[in-house]
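Page 42, continued from yesterday. The earlier attempt failed because a stray header line got pasted into the input along with the sequence. Redoing it now with the clean sequence only.
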Amino acid sequence: MKIKLKCPKCGEDLELTTDDDQLRKVLNSALKPINNIIVIPTWKCGLNCPYCQYHQQKDNKSIIYTDKLYHVEKELDVEDWIKLLDGFSPAFYNFSGGEPLRYKGIIELLNHLQHWAITSNTLHFTKDINVRGCESWTASFHPHIPEDSKKLFFDNIAYIKRLGVPVGVTLVAKPETIENVLEWSEKIAAMGYAVHIHPYYDDKEFSWYDYPSAIELLKASPYLMYGEKLFEYKGIQSNGECHGGIDYFAIGPDGRIFRCLTDLLLGRQTVNYHTDKCNDLCLFPCDWQNMIEEKR
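This time it went through. Structure tokens are written below.
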């Protein structure tokens, strides 16, 4: 079967002969504008969680993920972020970090955008942030923080929820903290929040299977995210079909654009969405790129 595709960006005609139904499905959804942007405005955080997968560097701007360095010479100014993100408009912007609320221009940036979501420890929330455009607030709770910080956390998420924003809470579990995390998960769920437990994962030398009693507690929890998928390190894993470069990009604190979050964290090639030719953007997802070449 021949599939004819026209790129909406450059107008190039593409023709592919294939009998692969799944490949056809991916290709038919692939050539559409990028409409989902992962935004990491800063790697700064300050909590120094022992289970964080991002290891802050002395410059307080760069991080190491596994063994890969993401070096930031200079964070983008807020004016440059606005100009960059407006180039994708209309789009949905998903903020993460680091701690995105520690970015110095975050109030102006969020208040400028119409549709966004955020993952944040929420300790730096301010009522100057207009959450009218926020479609989802994922609050990361860390039980080791001081009592006054816990109070601030729960006050802030309660305020955000009262404004009509869907609020969920995530916690990271390690074998030595699993009982405390399970206890807090029950408390937070009883407050009316969706709760998700993220197993400690991003460590090549770690496996939950080395802790049989802890793993049984984790598996029994209704709040466990991803099932047993993250019980031992197998690299960065997708939760479904890869859509990197199809309908989303990831942008780091210095404004570098990557086809997907994996490319960003592993230091792969950047793209320039507004000037590169489509072929240079690795338009199709990585898992399918070789198949496309083989079937041409």
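Notes: The mean pLDDT is 84.
Reminder to self: strip header lines before submitting.
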